[in-house]
Structures are given as structure tokens and as C-alpha cells.
Design brief:
The chain has 768 residues and is of the alpha/beta class. The protein is built from 30 helices and 21 strands. Helix 6 runs parallel beside helix 7. 45% of the residues are buried.
Amino acid sequence: MTDHEENREEFDKQALIYHRMDPPGKLGVVATKPLANQRDLSLAYSPGVAAACRAIVDDPLEASTVTARANLVGVITNGSAVLGLGNIGALAAKPVMEGKAVLFKAFSNIDVFDIEVDQPDVDRFCDAVAALEPTFGGINLEDIKAPECFEIERRLGERMNIPVFHDDQHGTAICVAAATLNAMEVVGKKVEDLHIVCSGAGAAALACLDMLCSVGARKDHITVTDAKGVVRTDREDSMDQYKARYARETDAETLGEIIDGADLFLGLSAPGVLTAEMVKRMAANPLIFALANPVPEIWPEEAKAARDDVIMGTGRSDYPNQINNVLCFPFIFRGALDCGATEINDAMKVACAEAIAALAQKEATEAVASAYEDQSLTFGRDFLIPKPFDPRLILEIAPAVARAAMETGVAARPIQDFEAYNNRLQAFVYRSTMVMKPVFEKARQSPKRVVFADGEQERVLRAIQVVVDEQLGVPIVIGRREVVRRRINRLDLRLEMDTDFELCDPEDDPRYREYWTLYHQCMARKGVSPDTARTIVRTNNTVIAALMVKRGEADGMICGHTGIYQDHLRDVDDILGRRPRVSHLSGLTMLIMPKGTLFLADTHISPEPDPDALAEMAVLAARQMRRFGIEPKVAMLSHSNFGTSNAESAQRVRDAVALLRRDHPDLEIEGEMQGDAALDEQIRERLFPDAELKGAANLLIMPSLDAANIAYNLLKQTTDALSVGPILLGCDRPAHIVTPSVTARGIVNMTAIAVTDAQLQQEGPGIT
């Protein structure tokens, strides 16, 4: 047994364990509307559902507004050609269809019903699928054998007024075309000059050849072989109208006879058909796509041993350049569904391929880098197409496909506002997008200088690239020049030192004496000697960043990527101090959850805040929320509900509520109360009918650091919440301390907040 076979046997065991976990399978059905009471029932079903039915009778396009149809795809098979398994039948193919459904949902938020049709007859299969048109916004055909799949797709495309897409053909073809376009960039060849040899004449192979022709390849430069030999014009055995399109006039009969001088070998056939000796006879810089799975036409190690200028692609995830349909099908359907496309035409496929190719040439994001830590993510021979877990695929492909659909006249619901559409896609990829949108827009209006204390860290550099690209701020980086340069190059970022950002090198900055002198002035009465000041300023980047802000060389700062939060807080507080009329610093954290957005304070700073501190915290947090365009509804939390306890902790919260009512009567606030009463108005009305807070609270002021931090972490883990923050409240200058778990996107969010802090501070004095 080979190593590959042993690995496969163990992998199969793990796969069965995965599928058998309770509940069995990979799919479930989840309601998207509440069904909590009699009114919900009457709206969802009888009699309310009649209104939705009548709307569709009046205008069939209303089905996309009152039902899930516009976001529902049918993944349909008869199980006649399951990848690597053959004709195993409809029932045995169900796990594959469920898997496809999971990918649709995870990568593009498209819902799927998998349908396994036990019908090999083309006429009866087409009748069954066509009758399902009222259910779906699109049909993804899967694992149907050739040549029947060609006829099925053609007939259904003619009969149905929704997209019908055979992914085994076109998904593979689009990815092959994208990888080929980029390979030509790498080796300096042109697609139209390629001499192509294809092993395999099934659905995927022929679709790949059609797609390559769509992006410029010449049909007279293509030679095809199958199990019977070269596809020739004089051949009669195992020929059909589909492969006959690529028949050549030639005397050659085998793959070995036609491989000489080939620029591209495209394999969608069987293991081991391409030998090392054949590879040696290909043209310079040969491109080999050995896509048979799980065992390719030639292993990459064998091909590269034969010659070192080979560029390899396979269908496997354990080698570079995986030709993976998941790069395509979720996103081409996303674009097609969103514009109401009636078909997926050639222009839409080309747009998809070009978008995939373009994305591979961009630098990798942190999300991609963390998912593929051991692989090269720099555009070149080993990185021709993006990775499946690149979250930007939907952002690049879906709009390109929708535009192509509109330009070719097949969009029933053309997208009117692409900026709004892109924002919607961004909200799926980066859940903070919609909440952060007003902050980002304000930051762009007048970008300010933000200094990054941890400028050598990879996540910080990735974030700075986004800050520069989106024009959110003017970065200043603290870090050793050569270290920063090396890491920019290793990450393949486009940042140019001293152009895109200013660098402060702690080991070689002419302002060093001025910095340590100022620091000593700030700290002389706190036991810091001149010698200690010199050492700290040379070694503590948070101190340097705070000094730059204090001197007016930066408008705001971001620190905390490494180290302990309280240590950074102490340095920031020592140097920058607090805003006028602010007695306490506090930390506000935003949680973006499936059911809405919550703000929690104080999650990071105040152990046992007194009534004054709690009241001040609520005011500062409420003002911060309004910058996000969210009107605060404040709940002051306790174990006590409206006087049920006279414990000291409850009394502190009660006193804070009284202070807020006296000094800030415009603030919608209630308390002291428990968490369920804060979030559920019905519970609150039963306990205290006269509560001034209406609806659910969105700002929770916690009675202690323990309560706030515990609640924050429990909510984050149990609700799949995305956090933004902590946002430092009350500092005299814009400064924010992130935590070591922060992502690059999190740093971008905090940068935009720091910029808007600086803008407000320049507009005038006062608590910001």
C-alpha cells in the first residue's frame, strides 16, 4: 500500500465519523422569520400568507420579494457520474449534493435544496427538473455523465427561464481558464499561441476547451485524446457530436505522439496517462493541469523531476494551484441570482474567469494567510489562482457576473446601485461593514495621521495596506526599518516605505533626545529617572506612539497588538491623560451578532466603578454610539431588578441611574435591571410597567469589570459574534488599545475610529 493509499484510508474513516455525527448529514432547514406567538403564526401562514400569494399572482417578479426563491438554488443529480466513484446512483450521490449545498451557504450565503432524481432517461429527467422552476432561482446540475449532461443542460436551458449551470463542466472550465490566463502572465506567452493537448473528452474536458477558446485559444491548436486514442476526423469508434467539434485531421493515434511541443497539457481523464518522458518533450515552460482525482494524470513530483520549468496544477488541495470549482460556482450564482439572470451565458463565465485571475494577482489578506500558513501566496508559478477561503472572491466575482448579465440583456432585475450592492456583499464578508460604514465615510472625508506602535507585526502591516488603499488615514509606523521592509516584501504588500507611510525607527530616529526628555518631564514625579526614560523610549513603542501624539506629530494612535492591556493603558494615561471633565477611562466593545448589535461597557478597565464612573461611562459610550449612526438605548445592569436588592453593588447602579436622569434627561435609560429585562421588553413590562426604556436595550452598562468581561466573552463565543474594540473612552487624545487576538480587519476598524476621534477633536473642545 502506497503512502497516498494509506492516507486515503485514514481520511475515509474520519470522513465517515464527520458525516455520522448527530444529526446525520450536513444540512438542516432554518426559519428566517420569528414564530414566537399567535400573531407571528397568522402572518407566516393563514391568513397572512394569502397577501404574499396575491402579490405573486399580480406580478410573478414579486416572488423574489415575498419568498426565498431569489436566493434558492436546486443542486440536482441522477448520480450517474459522481467524481471518482462513477455511476453510483441518485441515493448514494446525496452526500455529495449535501456537501455542495454547504459550500453554497458558507461561501455565498445561498440557500440550497439538494434533489436526487432516480432517473437515467434524459427526457424524464428533464421533465422532472423543469417542473421545479417555480421553486428555484437557479439550477446547479451535478455529477451527470456525458454525453447526456450536454443534452440535459441544453434542453433545460431552453425550457426554463432561470440559470441552469452544469458545474462539472463550466465550474472546472472557468477555473482552468483563470489559471491559464495567469500562467501566461508568468511565462510571457499569449493564449492564442498555445498548443494544447487534452487527455479526456468528457463533459469537463470539452467545457474547458470551449472556455479556453472563449478567452483566446485557437481551436486549430487543440488536439484531444480519450480512452480510444486521438480524436480524429476519420475516427468512428466512440465519437459523438460534442467531441467531434475538436476532431483533427492527423495520423497520430496516441497521447505520446501528439505531446511534442505542447504548451499546455489538460488532463481530465485517468491516473498516470502522462509520463515523465512525455513531459520532457513539451515546449518551454509547459503548463500541466493534471485534474484526475484523487490520482492525477501525473504526480507533481514526477513532472518537476523531469524538468524544472514545469508549472503544475491539480485537483488536489495538498498541492499548489488546486483547480477547485468552489472558486467559481457559489459566486457566479450569487451574481446571477442578484440581478435575476435568466441564464448563465458565455459573457458571464468569461467575466467570472477574469475576476478570479485578477484576484490571484492581489496580495493575500490575513484571513487567507492564516488558513494557508504553509503555502506560498505570492502570485507566480505556484500561485496562479486564489485559495477557496479567500473572502474577497464574492466581492470580485459576483459584481462582475451581474454586470455581464446586464450588458448581455439577461438580467430581469438589473442592479441599480452597484455601490449599495457592493456594500451588501461586504456586509456578508466583513460583518462589521454596515455598522462601520458611517465611520469609514467620515474618516475618508478628512484622513488624519495615525501612528501604529506595533509596526513590525504582520497583521498591522496588512491593516495599513487596507488603510492606504481605502484612504482612511495617513499611517505612521513604528518599527525597525529593515524588519519592516523584509516583512512587507514577505507579505507581498504594495506598501512603499516613506511614500505610503512615515517610519519611526526606535533604533535610529533623530527625535530620540526630544522624546525621552518629554517623557521624563511627564514621569519625573513618578519615579522615572533620566536613564530610565532613555531606556523606555528606546524600547517601548507604545510610549513612543503616545509621545508622537502628544507632540502633535500624529493625530491618533493604535497599540496593544502584543503585551498586556493594562500596561499599555498605563503608558497612554501617563502621557496623554484624560479629557477635560472626564474622571475615568473606560472601554466600550461592540458585538455584532446574528440578532443585532450590542455595545458593552466597561469590558476592560474599571474593576468596581462608583456611581459617578458608571454615569460618566454611559454618557461617553452613548456619544460614541451616535458616531455609528445608532441611537443609544441604555440599560444599567445589575443582579437586582428595580429595587429587588439593596446590596451595595445594586445601590451603586441605582445611584448612577439617578445621576444620569438628573444631568442627561435626553438619554433613554433605565435600570437597575437584569440582562433579560434589558433585552426583552415584555419581561421588563411585567416587572416594571412604567420603565422609560422602550424596546430592547443596545448599550449595556455593566456593574463591574468581571461582569462586563465575562458577559462579553460568553456572548462572543456562544452567538458567533464579531467584536469591534475595545474603544477607549475618555482619553485626552485619540488613542485605542487593541488586544492580541485582534485581526487585521479589526485594526482597520479601530484606525477609522481613531481618525474620526481626531476629526471631532479638531472641530472643537468637549467630551468626545
